[in-house]
Structures
1.
Amino acid sequence: MKTLAVFVAGAVVALLATPGMAQQARGIYLGTGAGVNIPQTQGWDFSNPTTKGRADVSLDAAVAGDVYIGYDFGAFRTDLEASFRQNDISNVLFGFDSFRRGRFAVPGASDVKVDVDGHERTIGLMANVYYDFEFGSPFVPYVGGGIGVGFNTWKVKVKDADIDTEFSSPLFAYQGIAGVSYSITPNWAANLEYRYFGETEGNTTSGDTKIKVGAPNNHTILAGFKYTFDFGQAAAQTVPDSPVTTGERSYLVFFDFDSSKLTPEATSIVASAATDALRGESTRIGVTGHTDRSGTDAYNQALSVRRADAVRRQLVADGVDDTLIAVRGVGEADPLVPTADGVREPQNRRVEIVMN
């Protein structure tokens, strides 16, 4: 647990210390995480020809981990995940409804605590879907959920009762996910997330004893990293170092892939436009947002508006009267460089400032 705490603390410090970068690329990604799994108490019902009762099985917190491969479509992404959890049984509290002596039924006893050696091990195979909340920031909150199967194995050993058994059962599994991703580079991201991992009930037998295992429920906290492949499109992250003008009173402001955050170069271009607007006493300033052709039309339309609004806010911060600025987004409809659908062309990720 001490090692885990150091790992998580280091990940948090890295997130806070790393300067803001572009949002992540889109496409195939690989990832892994490690953290802690905290299982809830399980209720086991058992019965045999002489005894009937229930056991509340408590398990210790322990290290957990996962690996996954997926595809990022933009706001939505999906992946296939393999996870591992193994938690030791800490103690078992038995309650007996009844037991038999000879031909007679005898009332049971309750709250009999028994020290048990053993563990529950779960290998989960899940299909997950996520929604990322993009705000033009390197921090991207997300929510998700998944379904799949948990391959569970329980090992139980009670010396005083001469019990030493191991049994396995595949169970239907589901999970809810909430977390935040931090884009270190366009391809690398760090994640910190919570997963509620639940399964259905299981049934097994041990000798002549039938056991119904209560639905396992787990609270898992993971920190990890994700790498997204760009397959040779790294040039799409390039931002020009100097203003590009289309005329005497026009400016182009370029953006990183799938981002509405102004880069330092873009901020400098906007400042130059603001200075010229104040000096030239402009009566109208048109701010038009554009995107490249990767992504859906609806998503790109919304992204173009966010880019235009980011430029408007910076112009106002630089002293331009907000009432002079007209903002609109045209999505991917008016590319500076014509391309096929799906192409990440850096010159098309822009905002045009036109002053009259």
2.
Amino acid sequence: MNVAGSTQASRRTMLKYGLALAVAVPGSGLLGWQLPLAAWSADLRTTVGERRGVRLADGSVLQLNTATAVNLDLAQHCVRLIEGELALSVNHARPLHVDFGPARVTVGQAQVSVRCDDRVCRLSVLYGTVQVQIKHGMALALHYGDQLTVYADGSGAMGRLDPHAPDWRDGVLNVTDVPLGEFLREVSRYRPGVLRWEPALESHTVSGTFPLHDTDSILAYLAANFPVTVQARSRYWVTLVSRGKPAPTG
């Protein structure tokens, strides 16, 4: 292996996009196979359980959540979200654009987060005011606290930001009276492998602040505070069942 050649190529790539690494937060997942094949060619990506931050040449800060892939076109002042979730903070007048599925948001002196999954994208304004252009649709101005859900067909719905939704940037999941099923679906985003649970468990609700880097401790908390048994075939195949019941087969 030509180590020197690989190092030089890596440096050329970093210079090409004008990036300087600001923060790299290791996660629990190293199984990159969980990302779709198309994401492997992305300029920046994270695996399941990993979070990463970079500072762009203009001083803007880009953060990538778990299982996220983005392409950079800084010549056009554009970040393209392929999949996953990002947060972007721009503290200067020259804006950056974020393309995500059927829409584009223009961010100048503002902070936003964008999450795309299941053919749905959600844009949240964390600070300031941004301009959104929905493809084949109208332009919108969104302000702090606004959240826009955009569907694959270009339709959208306005809502209000959950103030704890951006807490992933600090490595925590903060919830209040969230149904257990919804909570586990969120936890599974940060955990490689298969996480399943009995439908009967969905009736419980969860509150608290949980570390995203240690999903094992989250499952241990549930076992200690709910009538739940955690049954693991391996680190990557876990099922939650009502206490006293065997794990479902299959």
3.
Amino acid sequence: MPYECDVVTLFPEMFDAITQYGVTGRASRNSIFRLKIWNPRDFSDNSHRTVDDSPYGGGPGMVMMAGPLEEAIISARKRQQMLGIEKTEVIYLTPQGRRLDHCEAKRLSLSPGIILLCGRYEGIDERVIHRQVDTEVSIGDYVLSGGELAAMVVIDSVVRLIPGTLGDPESATQESFVNGLLDYPHYTRPEQYCESSVPDVLLSGNHALIQRWRLQQALGKTWLKRPDLLKLKEKNGITEEEKTLLEEFKKNCKIK
């Protein structure tokens, strides 16, 4: 059964990027996940297909109306229920939400499906959030023109974790953040490029040494670029081997 993803959005065409290109496009064509779009305008109660109005209390911009949004969400819930999914999580993309990280993407990938709600303008009527939204998610501390790009980020991060999406099943287990660290450096042909060489250990054929080097590089890159992640890993438990590798990296490191 495909992973079911329903999206409520005023701009359905934007999601062609998800279903037609890259890893998610291939997953869509291979029926690993299925995307269904719901346009709130289709649930408007007037001939102008109005979905927004001025905010109570005054202020700039417009607010998306509760009625069309809620009807779209209800329709999405019913579709997933007809497919056998009794309870689907409705996620509203907003800067006020929990920050999306690997753990959250993994959690969502283990469910049979999700419903993503994309806001526009100054936001959506608060009553929709109270009545229909289960989780609020943010992709960063900044403001976008709408929730569509954030929704696509969520879909991509989730779908790539579903078995069968990536060509090599080990790819998803060796990426950044999986073990709380950044990824190690990668190299490919040619062996020499602009007077820079591939590290000798990667040419040695000694897989134990290669794994050791990769772990050390991941630890080192995290120490250099994301010390906050390293502190979290140390808090959650770092092995003696990892401590030794990191100390070796620090001794040999030449920070520019």
4.
Amino acid sequence: MNLLIFSSILLWIVVIIQIGVIFALARQIGILFERVSPVGAMISDSGPALGDKVPALVLPDLNGSGLTLGAGHKGRSQLVFFLSTSCPICKALLPALKSIRADEAGWLDVVLASDGREALHRRLIETEALQDFPYVLSSELGMSFRVSKLPFAVLIDQHGKVRAKGLVNSREQLESLFAASETGIPSYQAAVAGLNS
């Protein structure tokens, strides 16, 4: 009888250790997925194609009097970043956008875009100190670019043409839009596919 009790206790200890090991492995896999995120923005085939001219759009700006997007803009490139007030990845990328805006101020304007209730966006502007960014609230803009997942970014050149676009989850993916614009290769995935063919 004592042997049966001892073996039962020993088996429970082994099960508890296995649960701990499985939890630790699952955590490590999660960390690995964060570190090995896809390189480059994930291109979307919907919406305006690369090279298409964006018609001049005059949109209301929550931080100013108005904003011209696309062909009618003042000869500077624009990075349009689509975000949501409830998107944690969008909020995590805001410091990167502030840095990009400062680093690329000579040629690039960073525009934040969303839709929804204005009060929620005003609260986000206040809590994240986004007063210096043009902030467009327009569901039509998201529909014209066919934005279905967030965060999404579109790089429009100084002539109003779409140079790069895609789903972005990290600073590296944001910066890949600039590399795509400079090289003419739309994404890392397209470059790899070109090497393999």
